[in-house]
Amino acid sequence: MTLPAWLRRHFTPAPDSTVAAEIRRGKSPWTDGVHLLWSLWVFLTPLMGDGHYTVLWLCLTLLSYPLFLWLYAKALLAPRKIAWRYAIGMALLSLLLLRWYPSGLSYFVFGCVMLRISAQRLALGKYILQLLAMNLVYVGVATWLGYPRELWLWVPAMTLVIGIIVNVEHISQEKDAALALSQEEVRKLAATAERERIGRDLHDLLGHTLSLITLKLELSRKLFERDPATSKRELEEAEQVVRDALAQVRSAVTGIRATDLAAELASAKLLLESAQVQLDYGASPPGLPPEVERGLALVLREAVTNICRHAQAAQAQVEFKREDKAVQLCISDNGRGGVAADGNGLSGMRDRVRALGGSLSVESPRNGGTRLLVRVPLVWREPLLPLRTVATPVLAASTQGQG
Q1: What is the side-by-side strand order in the sheet with 359-363?
Q2: How far is the C-alpha of 245 from the C-alpha of 129, rounded, in Å?
């Protein structure tokens, strides 16, 4: 059975929502649904008063409980920048019904607790202040409606205790998630370091060996006297093959060592996702000159730092594009935008790009995110021909010479 489009749209988790974060951690999207068991107090509250379920209670339950469930779901599925509104909505729903519907106090407790679960990087102190403010409003409304003094103390105490417990649990979960992500990135960086080690060993071993062969062939050429003309030509061609092989080894090692951007992308992913910003990026283009790669890596580092500190974004993207004689780097986010003037970070990035002979443009409409476009000219290193391809004409010439 296919759900209607409008229903799928309303219940599809946003990339930075609480549910999406649980899915990325490998957990079930229904994990937080178990907390709904506490909403059974809605149905048990009448038993603590006169023990009767009235028609008014039934009508208000049928109207309010589905709305509460919708608010609860949206607090978990919506982007974290706006999810807190649904938590506030639960508390307001409780306060609006408080005159006729004491069961609605459960909605208020849920609203106070969900404010932390759905919030974006909310510090414990700020959360406690928000709880105190919400409970102050509740006490004022309950006093005005003539609620017993026991409820003045019971509800604020319960929301504070449960809220702080949930807050500490989520801080612990976020640290565990950051640690797991860190371990994954450390493995990737370790693999990169291993590639560098292989390249270094390859250079030390084959480079030295081929150099030695070259020297021996040169020595043989000088000592071989039976057919001086032919042997000289053969040894010169063999020497050229060895030199080409040595150049190819060095080129391969240079490619293996070109890891500045790869390491910086891995570091950027770790930093942003620890700050609950989803980063998507593509592979960096091969064959970049070392100075260009280092410059782009430093620009990427500064841009990611700015996103983490100032953008208030939920998603970021890094894209590379190869042009005819240039490389293009685009870094974008969906944050608040509104960058009107260059700060220290942007000024530094412009200086680095200018030193490479490139250009940097910034698009940052207010509430429309920020897009940095870097374009750097370069001369691409064309891959050398395989050893077999280089050797073939030389061997052919050698055969003709022998004939």
Answers
A1: 278-281, 315-322, 326-333, 370-377, 359-363
A2: 69
The residue that leads in pLDDT, 220 or 4, is 220
What is the model's pLDDT at position 385?
Answer: 40
Name 31's Cβ contacts closer than 8 Å, sequence gap at least 6.
22
Cβ contacts of 379 within 8 Å, gap of 6 or more: 289, 325
Mean pLDDT of 273-296: 83
Q: Report phi then psi at 329, rounded to 5.
A: -120, 125
First to last CA, the chain: 79
Whole-number Å distance between alpha carbons of 117 and 325: 49
Distance CA 368, CA 335 (A): 7
Percent of the chain with pLDDT over 70: 66
Q: CA-CA distance, 7 to 182, in Å (whole number)?
A: 36
| Strand-strand pairing, 326-333 and 315-322 | antiparallel
Q: How many residues does the chain have?
A: 403
Tokens describing residue 364: 């940052």
Q: How confident is the model at residue 397 (pLDDT cuts 50, 70, 90)?
A: very low
Q: Which residue is associated with the tokens 């105490």?
A: 157
Least confidently predicted of 10-14, 31-35, 75-79, 186-190: 186-190
Q: Is 280 helix (H, G, I), strand (E, B) or coil?
A: strand
H or E segment at 121? Answer: none
Average pLDDT of the residues of the chain: 76
Burial class (CB in 10 A: 0-12, 13-18, 19+), 173: middle
Tell me the per-residue pLDDT of 328-354, one tens digit each, with 9 for 90 and over.
999 999 988 888 777 778 888 898 899
Question: 103 near 45, Cβ under 8 Å?
Answer: yes
Q: Residues of 140-164 as b/e, b for ≥16 C-beta within 10 angstroms?
A: ebbeeeebeeebbeebbebbeebbb
Q: Is 356 exposed, middle or buried (0-12, 13-18, 19+ CB in 10 A)?
A: buried
Structural domains for the chain: 5-147 (no CATH), 260-403 (3.30.565.10)
CA separation, residue 32 to residues 157, 352, 394 (Å): 23, 47, 71
Average pLDDT over residues 303-321: 88
Mean pLDDT of 275-298: 84
CA 217 to chain centroid, in Å, comes to 54
